[in-house]
From TrEMBL:
Name listed for the protein in its UniProt record: histidine kinase
Keyword terms of this UniProt record: Coiled coil, Kinase, Membrane, Phosphoprotein, Transferase, Transmembrane, Transmembrane helix, Two-component regulatory system
UniProt organism field: Intestinimonas butyriciproducens
Main location: membrane
Catalytic activity line of the entry: ATP + protein L-histidine = ADP + protein N-phospho-L-histidine
Cellular location(s): Membrane
Length: 257
C-alpha cells in the first residue's frame, strides 16, 4: 500500500508524458476490471446448469429414480442443461474472438438481403414453430462488413424478433441505402422492451425477464455481440420499442462505394 501511495504521489508531480502513461495505466486497469467482472459473470452462468446436472446425476446414481419414465425425463433435462452450456460457451468464445482476433479488412463486403435470406433459411424451423412470418425487403445494398459477421449480427437480431414475439406475429428486415450508408432495420410485432431496460439490453448477460428468458433459451449475450460487431465495423445502432407492440432495431453501416 505504501508503495502504491508513494507512486501515486510521485506521479502527481510528474511530467506530462508520464501523466499520459498513468492515463494509459488507468485505461488498462478499467479494462482489467471489465474482464474480471465478465469472468465472474461467466462462472456464475456456468454454475447454474452445472448445479442442475449434478443434482440430476446424484438422484439417478442414488437409485432413487426407479420408474423408467422418470429416468427418461431426467436424462432429457440433463440434455437441456448441456445444450444451455454449449450455447453459453459458444457465445463467450464469440466475444473473445471479436475482442482479439477479428480485424476488419478493407475489402470486406456483404450483400444485406442475401445474407438476411441465409439467416431466414437457417431460422426457418424456429419461425415456423413459433408461427412467425419473416419478411425481407428494400435496396440491393452492400455493406463494408465481413459476411460471416453480418450473418452473426442478423441472426441474433432476427432470432430475438422471433423469440420475443407472439404467435401470428412478424419480423421484418429492411435494407435502405442513403448518403454512403446502409440502414438495416429489424422490426418485430412482439412483446417490446420496457423503457428502463432499453439502454441495458446491450449489456452482457442483461435480460429483461429472467423467468421468461429461461424458457425461451438464450444467453443474454446476443445483443452485446451485435453491438461489438457494429462498433468493430464503424457502424452505429439504435433501438425503438413499445411494450406490447414491438421493437425496432436499426444498424447503420458504411456502404460499399
Ligand atoms: P438473449 O439471449 O436473452 O436473447 P440478448 O442479448 O439478445 O439476449 O437480449 C437481451 C434481452 O433483451 C433479452 O433477454 C430480452 O429480454 C430483450 N430483448 C432483446 N431483443 C428483444 C426483442 N426483439 N423484443 C423484446 N425483447 C427483446
Amino acid at each position: 500500500l505504501m508503495l502504491v501511495l508513494a507512486r501515486k504521489l510521485a506521479d502527481r508531480t510528474a511530467q506530462p508524458l508520464e501523466q499520459k502513461e498513468e492515463e494509459l495505466e488507468q485505461e488498462g486497469e478499467k479494462l482489467q476490471t471489465v474482464r474480471s467482472e465478465f469472468a465472474a459473470n461467466v462462472s456464475h452462468e456456468l454454475k447454474t446448469p452445472l448445479t442442475s446436472i449434478k443434482g440430476f446425476t446424484d438422484m439417478m446414481s442414488s437409485g432413487m429414480v426407479k420408474d423408467p419414465e422418470d429416468q427418461k425425463r431426467f436424462i432429457t433435462m440433463i440434455g437441456v442443461e448441456v445444450d444451455r452450456l454449449i450455447e453459453l460457451i459458444n457465445d463467450v468464445l464469440k466475444i473473445s474472438e471479436l475482442e482479439s482476433v477479428v480485424i476488419p479488412q478493407s475489402d470486406d463486403r456483404a450483400n444485406v438481403l442475401s445474407v438476411a435470406e441465409e439467416c431466414r433459411a437457417a431460422l426457418g424451423q424456429m419461425a415456423e414453430a413459433a408461427k412467425i412470418s419473416v419478411n425481407l425487403s428494400g435496396d440491393n445494398a452492400e455493406v463494408a462488413v465481413a459476411p460471416g459477421r453480418l450473418r452473426e449480427l442478423l441472426t441474433n437480431l432476427m432470432e430475438n424478433g422471433i423469440k420475443y414475439n407472439e404467435p401470428g406475429g412478424r419480423v421484418d428486415v429492411q435494407a435502405a441505402q442513403r448518403d454512403g450508408k446502409v440502414a438495416i432495420t429489424v422490426s418485430d410485432t412482439g412483446i417490446g422492451i420496457p423503457k428502463e431496460s432499453r439502454e441495458r439490453v446491450f449489456e452482457r448477460f442483461y435480460r429483461v425477464d429472467k423467468g421468461r428468458a429461461r424458457k425461451t433459451g438464450g444467453t443474454g449475450l446476443g445483443l452485446s455481440i451485435v453491438k461489438h460487431i457494429v462498433l468493430l465495423y464503424g457502424g452505429s445502432i439504435s433501438l425503438k420499442s413499445e411494450p406490447g407492440k414491438g421493437t425496432e432495431i436499426t444498424v447503420l453501416f458504411p456502404a460499399v462505394r
